[in-house]
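FAQ: What does the model actually see?

It sees only this:
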Amino acid sequence: MLPFPAFQNVTLFHQRFGNSNYHALQVNVRRAYRAGLEIGGNYTWSKSIDIGNHFSVNGAGNTANGGGGSTFTLRDWRLERSVSNSDVPHRAVIYYMYDLPFGKGKKWATSGVMNAVAGGWKIAGVTTFSSGLPLAIAGGGFGRPDLIADPVLPRQYRVFGDGRTPVSLPDGTSVVVPNRRLLVFNPNAFRNRVVSTANPSVPGATILQNDQYWYGTAPRFLDDLRSFGINNWNLTLSKTIPMGERWRAELRAEAVNAFNRTEFGAGGIDRNFGAANLNPNQGVLGSSTNANFGTADITAIGRTPRYLQMVLRIQF
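And it is asked to produce this:
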């Protein structure tokens, strides 16, 4: 109860605490427009570490009830140190524009019908690749369970469940994935602590219950356990059509998420450890009883499915 042992409740406002650091390698490459082509891109390799953002950031898609932290660590800030909830190790954005070499003033199809059909076409786009955000696990001792195994699953283990069939995991355990949910990480990699205490109702007997005074070994955010990353292509195909000396038309077809890649939202991943199992006849003691723990709701789409639109623009 130090430093205020005589008070039942003490609330401190606007305390100065926390620290953070960010390091990055940033690369920018650009090929200037030449022969109808321009291409460029930016790449960032970075790492952000802090001990404080969980106290100010609450409810974000990857935080699992504020990052799994607790006031138990106010006396030892080292227990809060982890990657930041906004940490993205790798991110690359590439842009490109290309005037196809057909039509008047170009290399091929410079006149006549071929110029009218093949001339004036352009291709452009923006492609984004990015790592996912680190995940936090809520529950367990003072907000975090123990980390007892590697929670990261190879791609072949990330299966859709039917609610009946046990799925084998790399550590030799198995789990039944609920129907229409995707297994994202190993829920058996996390464990609560259980203790045996005297049963006050039955002299000489004992009961199992959750240990109330421990702090889980899982970090505030797990560096290697992340939400779904980004692999997105936005493309445009356009044609310029001259209409006399002063007028021209531009017909443009645009595709957002052109390859229709499914990317689930971080908020759809269940990271809530929930209640611990206290019955040895129903599984491993201290394991999560939340059937959805470690799985994702496949209806929680993070990125818009492929979106197509046509644009006609008249310039004069």
